[in-house]
Amino acid sequence: RTANQNFVSFKNLIQNIHLFFKSLTRDPPFVLDVNLGAISRLESVAVQSHGENTQGLEIVCKDLRNPRFAYKKEGQSNLEVFETLSKYAFPLSHNLPLFAFKYRETFPEDGWKIYDPVAEYKRQGLPNESWIISKVNSSYELCETYPALLVLPSNVTEDELKRVAAFRAKRRLPVLSWIHPESQAAIVRCGQPQVGPSDRRCREDERYLQTILDANAQSHKLCIFDARQSTVADTNKAKDGGYENESLYINVELNFLEIPNIHVMRESLRKLKEVVYPAIDQQRWFSSVDSTHWLEYIRLLLAGAVRIADRLESGKTSVVVHCSDGWDRTAQLTSLAMLMLDAHYRSLRGFQVLLEKEWLSFGHRFASRVGHGDGNHANSERSPLFVQFIDCVWQMTRQFPSAFEFNELFLITVLDHLYSCLFGTFLYNSEQERVSKEVYSKTVSLWSYVNSQLEEFTNPLYVNYEHHVLYPVASLRHLELWVSYYVRWNPRMRPQVPVHQSLKELLVLKSELQKRVDELKRDAASSHSLSSSSEHEGMPMQTTV
């Protein structure tokens, strides 16, 4: 916690989307910059500073920091300070627009165009004889949380689709998300079947999964991965949820990945925050981190994604992935499996496409999980699912340092703007909501900003392993806490030269060396050509007509 801080002038400190605090008592002055979108809650506190009681403010942030400030009045009451800050930190709670709708920065590239679903599915070889790109959800009537374009089995009628949708949670029927270029094994995602306590069945759903199995001639089995703990899936039956009955779904194998729910993950990150901020207990560091179970949950996600990827790659088997509603753990697992299977998604632009497709278009509830502009910090819907996914990606970059085109700064930048509300990318809960709020025309995409300075986010060690499948080791011995992200705000952390700056210099050096290699190759080729000409000079030439 940063104490003994004084406001210079509160009005000058709130500038658009940032709040600046400047110390008057330190030399050189200490300045802290807090993004208003990252604020989870505000608390007015009494603080003792220099032996006297003064007013203070504690700012609880979503990015694992809790700065606390003492300040002198200087013409403004504590209530005025609190209310002004609250107004800009939680605009939706004050009937104000999110800042993204006021941000008017222009960039050379329109980031909203980075993801074209038709182009992405074409890259995968779709449509084909078994799968079509359908506009059946163009008005979001079949499923309001799915994208307008869906890849569906080619021989299923619209009436059958509606019956299958009605049987699945939130009408999230099974749809293709990725297909293997050789085996045609597919990753299919959906919501849980609504079998309920009486074990209802839906013959259309059973035939639909059989159709998905038949689309892959390489395998005679369909593998379902239910992300939930099996005990929880059983409990969900009482709430009209449930899971597939293997006796009714022929040639289907059901696997539970035993991953806890959003509430467990929220509590785990809360515990981690207590470990890393404001003080670190050096003697109990490892046991403290272990007690949060954060790395254990990272391990479960990576292990589940490895199982999915291996079934497709080695087993040539199509997989169906779901959790309860199919927008939280499902998105984590499908996108991680695709990162392992498809090198395109490991490029800078390819990763942007992956996020747009698996997380944004398929309706991960960013607004509910993050709480953009909403002062209701106690909302039980909030959970760090996307942070967890990015952490898993970071773990993969540690195990395969040359397999990803993007660097650590890119991942941290994505997470910072998950909260910032500066760009429209992560706003709202679904594609339909973003369309209705005119996000694509009235806000700027995060990718416009990122792609305007790709050199900042490029990994100089990157090698395009185009046909390599990555299988990270999902063992706690090979996982580590992402200190550069989780511990960066600890006041006792020594400022260091940013790693990305050194990597940027390496990138320049790599480019210069590559140019030199190309020059030497041209010189060698030229010398060889001249040598060959000299040898053949004066020799007769024969031409065949």
TrEMBL record:
GO BP term, example: phosphatidylinositol dephosphorylation
Stretches for region Disordered: 523-545
Main location: cytoplasm
InterPro entries on file: Myotubularin (IPR030564), Myotubularin-like_Pase_dom (IPR010569), PH-like_dom_sf (IPR011993), Prot-tyrosine_phosphatase-like (IPR029021), Tyr_Pase_AS (IPR016130), Tyr_Pase_cat (IPR003595), Tyr_Pase_dom (IPR000387)
UniProt keyword annotation of Ubl conjugation present: no
Positions with a binding annotation for substrate: 236-239, 261-262, 323-329
Domain Tyrosine specific protein phosphatases, chain residue ranges per copy: 292-339
Entries under Pfam families matching the protein: Myotub-related (PF06602)
Ranges of residues in domain Myotubularin phosphatase: 111-486
Topology class, membrane: Peripheral membrane protein
Residue positions of the active site: 323
Keyword Acyltransferase: no
Keywords, in A-Z order: Cytoplasm, Lipid metabolism
One GO CC annotation: membrane
Domain of life, source organism: Eukaryota
GO molecular function, one term: phosphatidylinositol-3,5-bisphosphate 3-phosphatase activity
Subcellular location: Cytoplasm; Endomembrane system
PANTHER family per UniProt: MYOTUBULARIN-RELATED (PTHR10807), MYOTUBULARIN-RELATED PROTEIN 1 (PTHR10807:SF40)
Protein family per UniProt: Belongs to the protein-tyrosine phosphatase family. Non-receptor class myotubularin subfamily.
Stated name of the protein: Myotubularin related protein 1b
